[in-house]
Amino acid sequence: MGDKLDRWADPPLLVLASLAGEPKHGYAITQDVAQTMGVRLSAGTLYAVIARLEAKGLIEPLESDDRRRPYRITAAGASALAEQSARMSRVASLATERLRAWATA
Amino acid sequence: MTGPAPSATLPARVVLALYPLSWRARYGDEVRALLDESGGGARAVASLAWQALPAWIWPPSHLHDRPARMRASLATGLMSWSFLAGLGLVFAQLTQFQGYRPAGHPVIGWCYAVFDAALAVSVLAAGLGGLPLWLLMLRRARRDRSVPDLAFLLAPVAVPAVYLAAVRVTVRFVGGPGGVSPWWFLAVTVAGFGAAGLAAAGPGLALRRLQPRGPALRVAATAGGVAGAAMLAASAAVIVAVAGLCLWAPGFAGYHHATLPGVFLALVAVAASVTAVSTARGVRAALA
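Structure tokens for the assembled complex are given below, as produced in the milestone run.
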């Protein structure tokens, strides 16, 4: 997953995490990311990320009569998100464990 | 696509125009809808402007097929490369050909040498790399008996030949012992840029009409990258040399006027940027 997301690692992760809940269009993604993860994604960053994720097959657009086209995460996207989440959990556990040892030393 | 949103802010519309056409066709309406809902604002406009350049340099692969990307990059790159080569020849005419080297500043001489070598590499790479594709398209145009395509493909040979013949005749009539007057030099230079544009536009139009694919296209796109990189080196040498002449030899050939060298360097910078972006996109598609 790290290789797939390369230098856009952070915003793509946020977008994938947002779409893991349910399909959303651009504005809904920015709202969800801001409310649940505390990060404000700008329009330029969001659509740069959407274009990359779509090109890599990690998300896909849904049909819409509206200008606001919703996107959903694909199986490849879910797998990539799970892999990166597991890696981040391992880093977080390790950091917490070592900080605890450092505090008691 | 449901047409542009009338309520999208003017700065956002302007900024969206900076994106490639294929990107706007795919995402333009969605971005306008997002701006309508979020209210746009300076941050959104700034972020869209910031992301426009990566959209050109690393275009999302699903928006273009690779051959179309290579053809578009070759057509654009050829135009900007020709313009840059023209600017380089103007530079050579106004510096090297006068034999001027300011004493105590060997960097000017080094720049002349770098320019010559880089220009030679660039022309060689463009010529040799583009030849198989040019021959492929020429064969197809002959087979189809397409006169417009034949004319487009022969433009890089015919237009410079006509231009050089016209310059020769003109100089014979208007030139004196010291060459032509500055106004005639300007007229010949402007006509030269026009001729270079016509010569470069021909193969670009043929690429669009004949839509070639295959190894010859990949070779041409890769060679275009080499030619573009060499031309960037030549441009860097031009920029250093002109800036150096302005600083160290203001009495030579009008370099005490900041405006003309400034305009010239700005044109070199713009043409070099377009060449770099378009050839990089072509190479990326060729090697993908």
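The interface with chain A takes residues 2, 5, 23, 26-27, 29-35, 37-38, 40, 43-44, 46-52, 54-55, 60-63 of chain B (CB under 8 Å). The two ends of chain B are 30 Å apart (CA to CA). Further analysis is deferred to the final report.
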